[in-house]
Amino acid sequence: MNNKLPLQTPNLTAQNIDKIAALFPNCITEMLDEEKSTPDRKVYKRGINFELLKQMLSPDVVDGDEAYEFTWVGKKASIVEANKPIRKTLRPCPAESKNWDDTENLYIEGDNLEVLKLLQESYLGKVKMIYIDPPYNTGNDFIYADDFMRSQDEENRQMGMYDEDENRLFKNNDSNGRFHSDWCSMMYSRLMLARNLLTDDGVIFMSIDDNERDNLEKLGAEIFGESKYVATFPWRKRTAKSDVPFGVSQDYEWIICFSKTGAFSASVDGKQRTYYETDDFPDRPWRVHDLTKQTTASERPNSFFDIVNPKSGERYPANPNRTWAITEETFEKYYALNRIVFPGDYDFLNIAKPVLRYWKEDDIVKAGDKFGRVAVSTKFPDYVGMSQDGTKEVTALFGNKTFSFPKPLSLIEFLCKISTSSNDLILDFFSGSATTAHAVMQLNAKDGGHRKFIMVQLPEPCAENGEAYKAGYKNICEIGKERIRRAGEKIKQEDDCWKCVPLNRMDGSKPGDDTTAKIVKTIDAGDGKPPIEMVDISKNPDVGFRVFKLDDTNMKDVYYSAEEYSQTNLEDLESNIKEDRTDLDLLFGCLLDWGLPLSMPYRSEKIDNCTVHTYAPGDAALNVPDALIACFDSNVPENVIKEIAKRKPRRAVFRDSSFASSPEKINVFEIFKLYAQDTDVKVI
Questions:
Q1: Beta-carbon neighbour count of residue 192 at 10 Å?
Q2: pTM recorded for the entire structure
């Protein structure tokens, strides 16, 4: 601990670098410190890559020499692509959804780069965990071909890689001169956007094999910061094979983990600690812990001393190869606080040297919601399965091998278990067969949690000679949606799995606020442990999902100059909204613009023959206003406007054609000034 005063003004440059590092960690580099360096010893310091910073703040590619950094052809263009605005929207599809009115889960079809852009406002800082299983770039899988400032014709000529539905996919063969560059560009822009969605204590897990492992770690270090690297988990995907190149079977893949900030901490349910209740400390349970530390006398001389029992005078010398964990000075303090326990103090303790006492109350305060949990190893538990297990799970649901190489449920479930709590949001923007959605629902069923998921997947066409296509699935999205449906029904049928959860957890908490106290089952825990009491969850697990599809904006584009207008054009001006768009399209489009989540309940009602939509209804008794009220009818009468205003929603929205003239539109704002001054009123 440094107690010296600096006796100088603050280092504003260092402070500014810290601020820039927090906003743009990829712009931090290292440079030679010429003042501190000598001919024999080079010293480096943190600096700012100003060229890259200029690029982060510019909508156009900035020319200039690149500093020391991980770079590739097209890197700056990928940054531009991530920051470039788009005119897109998400259109709701209730008919393809399950439990549309009640679910909080989302399934989004579309290019994940564009979807991530659309989610920036609604889900900024709200996602606790991201898991992705992107293309591994083996030379055989398909890569997203982002346009990177090229026109569509240029891209088509260069890539020749659009499918019949104009999905931006191409096969990145290893003969391509930009084999690694194309993959890095594809991942960089998406990870930039994904980072924004994470909570401050959020985390991302990324599956990869040996082909791009090194590059993915470097990408993560740039985007999240080197200090935010958590770990790389080795996952065994198969048993060894003999017929392999070089005689070595690559049996492992890797799950690279980065945190948004230093606030993330993984944990898992651990072995329950033993606490004692004694007469000398009533209502104050305690435990004991080793008082030594794995340090030598030369490494820690202040901790190499004899501990003397003040009551008996008995001496306990320190081990020169394993000293005490405290100093001679702190011993007196700990003894005065009843923190030192000596042999013979308690008959039930079988100890030969002093130990340290810990109070349960202090453990609870220190651990918070992680009480009863322990740190996580990069070695997965034995129950985490391999690729063959994932294939078996999909085959069991569909009756055939519908999807190739799905991850096992146990793997994703474990990642959710160590990194999320009951009400957290989980995102997978390379969702594939929707293993992540299945795992989230299954984990909720087991522990009574209410985790929500967002799945994003491009509708990649299924191969016509494959099992999926023969079974009637034209693209991967159809497989993913059907898997969620089938998995949800399977979970609901397994009563013991989803209805009953333990009442007596390690921390004494109940499984959720929506549970009853009625004990429906008692299970023998064995080994002299108290029996586990099971209670019935009163609310069924959420096994539904709302489907949204990426599409062009709801609004018409206007490309006419004044001299080009005709009577036909003027007729088009009656509405600036595309003819095929419904009220539901407009409602959810407004949610994206306003930054509201897409999973909240809503209701529709008739007021004087006008359809009025209330999104995220409030509670008048609790003085909670409606989040948004919308009316997209034409020629909305004044009494309907007044009724909406009197409800005082946080937001209100109408369409331009709702009013016959400009004075009527102005009158709307005056009505809200009179009845609901705090309401944010918009017209589309």
A1: 21
A2: 0.78
> Which residues on adjacent β-strands are paired with residue 519?
535
pLDDT, one tens digit per residue, over 531-564 is: 666 555 445 789 999 999 999 999 887 544 444 4
**Is the pLDDT at 340 greater than 60, yes or no?**
yes
Residues 6 or more apart whose CB falls under 8 angstroms from that of 59 comprise 80, 83, 84
CB atoms within 10 A of CB 543: 24
Contacts of 320 (CB under 8 A, 6+ apart): 296, 297, 304
CATH for 88-269+377-537 is 3.40.50.150
Crossing angle for the helix pair 476-493 and 387-398, to the nearest 10 degrees: 80
SS (H, E, C) 233-294: EEEECCCCCCCCHHHCCCCEEEEEEEECCCCCCCCEECCCCCCECCCCCCCCCEEEEECECC
The whole-number average pLDDT for the span 282-287 is 94
Tokens of 259: 């945190």
Q: Residue 406 in contact with residue 390, Cβ under 8 Å?
A: yes
Which distant-in-sequence residues (6+ apart) come within 8 Å of 581 by Cβ? Answer: 91, 554
Helical pair 213-224 and 179-197, crossing angle rounded to 10 deg = 40
- pLDDT per position as a tens digit, 129-146: 999 999 988 766 666 766
Based on the number of CB atoms within 10 Å of its own CB, is 426 exposed (0-12), middle (13-18) or buried (19 or more)? buried
Adjacent-strand bridge partners of 235: 253
Cα–Cα distances in Å, from 556 out to 88, 90, 393, 415, 477?
12, 16, 45, 44, 28
Quote helix, strand, coil % in the chain, to nearest 5: 35, 20, 45
| Chain segment 369-426, per-residue pLDDT in tens | 777 788 899 999 999 999 999 999 999 999 888 888 899 999 999 999 999 999 999 9
Query: What's the pLDDT score for residue 66?
Result: 54
pLDDT in tens, 658-670: 887 778 888 999 9
Query: 533 to each of 421, 501, 512, 522, 666, how far by Cα in Å?
Result: 22, 8, 15, 5, 63
287/357 Cα distance (integer angstroms): 6
Domain boundaries defined on the chain: 12-69, 88-269+377-537, 286-359, 583-683
Give 556's Cβ-side CA count (13 Å radius). 14
Residue 109 CA to residue 122 CA, distance in Å, equals: 17
Indicate whether 362 pLDDT > 80.
yes
The four Cα atoms 192, 196, 202, 208 give a dihedral, to 10 degrees, of -20
Q: How far apart are CA 590 and CA 672, in angstroms?
A: 19
**Dihedral sign, CA of 202, 208, 214, 218?**
negative
Neighbouring CB atoms inside 10 A of 262's CB total: 11
* Per-residue tokens: 18: 């810290």
